[in-house]
Amino acid sequence: MNLGITLVSHVPEITKGLNQLLKQVAKDVPITIAGGTNDQDIGTSMDKILQAFSDNQTSEILAFYDLGSAKMNLELAQEMTSKKIHVYDVSFIEGAYTAAALVEAGVDLSEIEQQLEPLKIKK
To answer: Among its keywords, does the record have rRNA-binding (predicted)?
Structure first.
């Protein structure tokens, strides 16, 4: 498997729950999570995001997030890792679920991105 997934949320329990859901359709996809701040409060942590990237067994990661400041931290962390990170502005749960199922099925990245297109958050 050459693609992994990282989930970033302001709430630790959200990433844990979403990870449980994704494992139902994508048991072989490397999924790492970064939920909450370093002291388990509401927010995001650059350290946790970088650790999630590092812990993911793949060199190419599809990253999903819940709110704008999580995206900001993801984009900063993206610059601090040698891994190829794709950050998606899509519905968090539906986007991650769609991507995980497609990665599990061996679908290539361009097709995954086509499938994510209708889930994009409009500004």
So the answer is: no
- Would the pLDDT of 123 be above 90? no
> Looking at beta carbons, which pairs linking 103-108 to residues 24 or more positions away fall under 8 Å?
103/1, 103/3, 103/4, 103/5, 103/26, 103/29, 103/62, 104/25, 104/26, 104/27, 104/28, 104/29
Judging by DSSP bridges, how do beta strands 31-35 and 4-9 pair with one another? parallel
Q: Is 10 a catalytic residue?
A: yes
Which residues have C-beta within 8 Å of that of residue 46, sequence separation ≥ 6? 73, 76, 77
Report the predicted TM-score, pTM, of the whole model to 2 decimal places: 0.96
